[in-house]
Design brief:
Blueprint lengths: L10 H14 L5 H11 L5 H16 L3 H10 L19 H10 L4 H11 L10 H6 L1 H11 L5 H9 L13 H4 L1 H11 L5 H17 L1 H12 L5 H10 L1 H11 L2
Helix pairs in contact: 1-2, 2-3, 3-5, 8-9, 8-11, 9-12, 12-13, 12-14
Length: 253
């Protein structure tokens, strides 16, 4: 039987993380950390397991958020060399991202800088969401800069983090409140050569189309008037896939 995704976050992963922390934090009680996680993840689902890890960080690292982020920064490891590897190599970083998701609004600058680094090894799309809610203008400003970043994972985050219906996350409509900046971000990415980024932008538009079609049409109309290249055309098609399926279904009746 294939291993379920949630089962990767087990006592073995707890020991892996504990060993990494112990390497940079002498005195860290790695055994108690691992035992706490092993005991409390029993019969837990995926996100519940992430919260067990986050609870363990709080319990065994203390409540000094800035200090803890400094520790996490030291154990991130090398950046991904390709578009792939986010989950196969960086899977163990999900609990750390969950910790930032829960506590990141305590310090905007520290959190945003860490998320920028985290997403080069895993993904920061979940950790950035609370910052968007509490600091919308500031967060949209840095995501606008990220949309031009040289790193493909950072560029993808600029789109993925703004999705209205991001899987495993609460619905967010911050992009509508900051619509001018949102349009600039997607426009910066509409010709991105990376299919990894293109897919994210297409999914972003698809989310927008489902809930606010007039907003999606506004963006697409502008792009279509700018002699769009193959990348932009692919994104538009991907972004309209749900509405096309809906129209096609209606025609069959």
């Amino acid at each position: 039987m294939a291993k379920k995704f949630k089962d990767y976050y087990d006592d073995e992963t707890a020991r892996l993380i504990a060993d990494k922390i112990s390497y940079v934090f002498i005195g860290f009680d790695s055994n108690s950390f691992s035992s706490y996680v092993a005991k409390n993840i029993v019969n837990k689902e995926f996100l519940e397991r992430q919260d067990v890890f986050s609870n363990a960080f709080e319990k065994f690292l203390g409540d000094n958020y800035v200090k803890n982020i400094s520790l996490f920064t030291k154990i991130l490891g090398p950046e991904l060399k390709t578009e792939t590897g986010m989950f196969s190599q960086g899977y163990w970083l999900w609990p750390i991202g969950r910790y930032v998701e829960r506590h990141g609004t305590k310090n905007f600058t520290v959190s945003s800088e860490f998320i920028h680094s985290l997403t080069k090894r895993f993904t920061g799309e979940y950790a950035i969401r609370p910052l968007l809610v509490k600091f919308p203008k500031e967060t949209m400003k840095i995501m606008l800069a990220w949309s031009k970043d040289e790193n493909v994972h950072v560029r993808r985050l600029a789109s993925e983090g703004l999705r209205i219906n991001l899987p495993w996350s609460k619905k967010s409509t911050v992009c509508l409140d900051e619509f001018t900046t949102y349009k600039k971000i997607l426009s910066n990415l509409k010709s991105d050569p990376s299919k990894f980024v293109q897919k994210s932008v297409g999914n972003n538009l698809n989310d927008l189309y489902k809930s606010y079609p007039e907003k999606a049409i506004e963006i697409i109309n502008v792009w279509q008037q700018e002699n769009p290249g193959k990348e932009t055309l692919w994104i538009i098609n991907h972004g309209m896939r749900s509405i096309k399926k809906k129209i096609k279904k209606k025609r069959t009746f």
